[in-house]
Every structure is written in structure tokens, then in C-alpha cells.
Specification:
Elements: E1 5-8, E2 15-18, H1 28-41, E3 43-47, H2 53-61, E4 83-86, E5 109-116, E6 124-128, H3 129-135, H4 138-146, E7 148-152, H5 166-175, E8 181-185, E9 187-189, E10 196-198, E11 204-207, H6 212-226, E12 232-235, E13 241-246, E14 250-254, E15 264-270, E16 284-287
Parallel strand pairs: 2-3
Antiparallel strand pairs: 1-2, 3-13, 4-15, 5-13, 5-15, 6-12, 6-14, 7-8, 7-11, 8-16, 9-10
Helix pairs in contact: 3-6
């Protein structure tokens, strides 16, 4: 087993990991130790000097089967499990979200690896939805425990038409080329730790049983607890880094503050299970088949 050093970055989320060479296969003890660290800290930062796409996929497979790159967006050429996160391919993902929650079993974990970083800006914010849930007043927590939300990739992004160019319109058309609608618990129980977290974010568009206007007020209220500064890791990228975060109990946001300069990351995600609410009920799909994208984790 590697001599792992774990340096906590903030009180509620994030740890810097050293003593592990992630360019080499992980033994079972090391993988288990990293899983334990991920459960505790929600997001882990590694030195990834010498890691390529193949190595990133091998590292991700230490935590389970990997998904293909995305249900609708094209992968890196020759690497069907790798999604390019590239400033030259359109707008930054500058909205809070949990990866691919519009499918029945979103990824359990995501890895991001830096290839090209701008000289300033371009941070990734990662929020602990477990800390957010703990922050809720008891009366609001009891309400959230009862709610279910519909997540979809097909919604009004509220971007003025005059700001959308032809390329961006084509990218949006690709993103929604298969339309997904899935209902998840607003409070998800983590399958490994039993922690409760707010499972919402940008793809959550409507509370079941409420109008769109009512839904937005409640989702915005809950989301404000997720994005409290105390619950955030603000990761300033260096080249050749990898960040692993638990997609079951975090949200993230790519800060668009680098003047359109080149910024490229590669993402590989680990297949997840079907979310479960506090009463043991599972999420359910309304529209869209994602079997080409991900298996269901055991």
C-alpha cells in the first residue's frame, strides 16, 4: 500500500493527496484508502504528472466501471470514455450542477484532469451537498426530506437569443438530441456512508406536485445552502492535476473568468447506482434511455 498523505483543504470539503502515483495501477488497499478519503472529504486533488487519457481511465476504473463520455456529447477522438471540457467548444459550464443527473443512475464519481490552463481564472468550485443539508433549519430539512424533483437536459437556459451564436445553438441541439426526464429525491442517501445530501443542481427543474414558479422558489432556497462559501472548495488549477469528486453528494461550477483564453480538461466518470431517498424509494425515469451511456453500478 502506498504511503498516503491527506491534507485537508477546507473544513467541509476537499483534501490534497500525496504519496500516491496515480500513473500506476492502484493496489486494493490503496484504492480502498482513497475511497475512504473520498467518503470523508468529497473531493480529492492529485498530482497527475505523466498521466494520459488511458491512465486517467485506468485510475477511474479503480472505483468502478466507467461510463462512455456523455449521453449526447461527443467524446475525445479515439477515447469514447473521455469527455473534452474545452473553452473552445462553447460556453463554460458556469452553472451549478451535479454531472448528468437527468439520467436514472448518474455517475457516482467524476475525474477532471487539467491539460491546458489559462494564466488566470478558470477555477472549479465544488460544493458539499452534505454540509448544505446539515445547515438546513429543522423545519426546512423536514420539508426537503419529502420532496422529489424532475431533472432534465432540455430546459430554458435563460440566455437571451441575441447572445446565442450559430455554434452555441448547434451545441445546445446536440446536448438535447436525446431528451431525458428523471425524478430523483431532493434528499439523497449516500449508499456507502448513509449521509444525506441535497440532490438538486442545475438540471433539477421542477418539484413533483408543484407549479414551475413554486418549484423555482423552493429549489432556489435549497440551492442557496449548497453554495454557501463555507461549503465550497475553490480549486485553482495547475497543469497536470487530477480532481476526483463524489458526484453523489457534491455539485460543481466552472468559473468563467479567464477572458476566453484556452482552457482544456478531460473528464472520465464512474458508473453510479440509482439514487435512493430517505424512505428507501428509488429514482425513476420518465423519458430517455441512457443504457448506451452507463451501466447501473452494483
Amino acid at each position: 500500500m502506498a504511503d498516503i498523505q491527506i491534507r485537508k483543504v477546507t473544513a467541509n470539503i476537499g483534501a490534497q493527496i500525496s504519496g500516491v502515483d496515480i500513473t500506476k495501477p492502484l493496489d486494493e488497499e490503496t484504492a480502498a484508502a482513497l475511497r475512504e478519503a473520498l467518503n470523508a472529504h468529497k473531493a480529492l486533488v492529485f498530482d497527475a504528472e505523466g498521466l494520459d487519457d488511458e491512465g486517467q481511465q485506468a485510475f477511474a476504473r479503480s472505483f468502478g466501471d466507467v461510463t462512455t463520455a456523455h449521453p449526447t456529447v461527443a467524446a475525445v477522438d479515439g477515447a469514447p470514455n473521455v469527455l473534452p471540457v474545452d473553452s473552445e467548444r462553447g460556453r463554460a459550464a458556469n452553472h451549478w450542477h451535479t454531472d448528468v443527473t437527468f439520467v436514472l443512475n448518474p455517475p457516482q464519481a467524476s475525474t477532471l484532469r487539467s491539460l491546458t490552463i489559462p494564466p488566470y481564472g478558470g477555477e472549479t468550485l465544488i460544493a458539499s451537498s452534505a454540509a448544505a443539508y446539515r445547515d438546513l433549519p429543522e423545519s426546512l430539512r423536514r420539508l426537503a426530506d419529502t420532496l422529489w424533483a424532475e431533472h432534465t437536459n432540455d430546459y430554458d437556459y435563460a440566455v437571451p437569443e441575441e447572445e446565442i451564436d450559430e455554434e452555441q445553438a448547434a451545441q445546445r441541439a446536440q446536448f438535447t438530441s436525446i431528451k431525458y426526464r428523471t425524478v430523483h429525491p431532493v434528499v439523497r442517501v449516500h449508499p456507502l456512508t448513509g449521509e444525506r445530501g441535497l440532490f438538486i443542481g442545475g438540471f433539477a427543474q421542477r418539484i413533483v406536485g408543484l407549479s414551475p414558479g413554486e418549484s423555482r422558489k423552493i429549489l432556489d432556497l435549497l440551492q442557496a445552502y449548497v453554495t454557501r462559501p463555507e461549503n465550497l472548495l475553490r480549486h485553482r488549477w495547475s497543469e497536470n492535476q487530477l480532481v476526483l469528486f463524489d458526484n453523489r453528494i457534491t455539485q460543481h461550477y466552472a468559473v468563467d473568468n479567464y477572458d476566453g483564453l484556452p482552457r482544456r480538461l478531460h473528464r472520465v466518470t464512474v458508473a453510479g447506482d440509482v439514487p435512493v431517498g430517505i424512505e428507501g424509494k428509488e429514482s425513476y425515469s420518465i423519458q430517455g434511455d441512457a443504457s448506451h451511456y452507463t451501466t447501473v453500478a452494483a
